């Protein structure tokens, strides 16, 4: 029974059923007891047979073995693993005296799903005495929601409990640092309990300081902690948080020190990938491009230098721990996103060049090419691409991921410091980039690489941004001819939005009618078509669409949809005065009840149109806006 209860094998579950429910144990002169029924219950949970597991409880009662606390713990653990919050809450209502462990399991589910109000309500209504674990769960809730008034009494409960341990201490320390922002008290508490203070306690405090955006204090704590408590041994989480804190505080010297101290046993690929990616992002965000280029030019590996850029370059060339290729690619990804070509080029040459550490793969080439694109060095980017294309497929194999990354980078709005600020320059540069995107797309099809819906969506968004009506029509035609393409709702939404931005209203309606007919529309589709009706003064069509959707079974309008409808009315309502039009839009906020709630955008939309319609000074309008503002704030 003990061995079989955790088995994934259906035959083992069937054996348990036979032994417990079909009198298989009687052959050995045995009668099923709590242990046997609970073993079967656990195995049913492993196999996901929730209903059968629930039916087992009345079977136990009939057999004279009523469910005990352990039985319910197993059942609620099953609910927790499967995210069945409603079942757990209903079961608590049905039980005469639920054990505290069942409440703990349910509270964890609610907190994990961010259902904080329901968790608070359940905690306050518990008919049983909470235990330490209950207080820890609720203190974690208070930390996540930053509710000092709720968390303080819980700290008292935990500190005064005779079974207070390092687990509870970690939660308390995190609350003190992240919510109360009282590092001094947290440190005193740590010293007072240093007999069982461990690395988890320090890690909790570091995490709390990072939550309250105090990376400098987190760095200071990391540097002092092991002097105060020499018996502590840092673990992988500590190094990860310590490096993250030093990067956030722009203490690159400390980050590199911690990186050098990182034991090989903690240097798993996931940790190194994360560290190098964060390091690349922090370096680029903290240093102007010209300064970084100057430091790269001045690097000499034969000379000692204390500058963190030079230390990083030296570390790259002679890493003290094994660095997987995916980690270097992650570093390249972050610096390429920021257009740092020189650092990307240096990394590529030293790590992936001839006779270097690794042979570049398509991910490596992708990051390098994208770096040149984002830096607007388009000729260099295309030169790399042409070399790769000429080597395809013997030396390298171009794939859809490479084309998607390059097309997406080219399709992005131009936002680089060195680019001319003139609108004409930006427009010409964007048209050039769009032309290159379409050329890459053509090459992709010629290489018989199937474009994904995401590829088409990227191109449509680029045409939409450039207001390129011909480009939109061309891509739409290619979509129609692509027999292997299975268009997604997101793709159709991008097409609708593009047609709306290029003033092709009938095409918007053509796409909307197809989405509606195929029942593939979503909330974004609704907002786009309402925006189009408003901008093109198609009041009748917009009202007809809204009327149908309001009564449409199985579809829920959200706040963005109501906001789009409000804007549609303000733009397109005819035959009424400006005040009547605005009041008609304002009444939509009343219709939102039962669906969703007005938000800041609702208020901003009505406020801005009151100004545009020159009615913002009217007492009636002021009163409505004030009432709406109070509702949004609450």
From TrEMBL:
PPR repeats: 33-67
Coiled-coil segments: none
Keyword Cell membrane: no
Keywords linked to the UniProt accession: Repeat
Pfam families xref list: PPR_2, PPR_3
NCBIfam families, per database record: PPR
Designated name of the protein: TPR-like protein
Organism: Hesseltinella vesiculosa
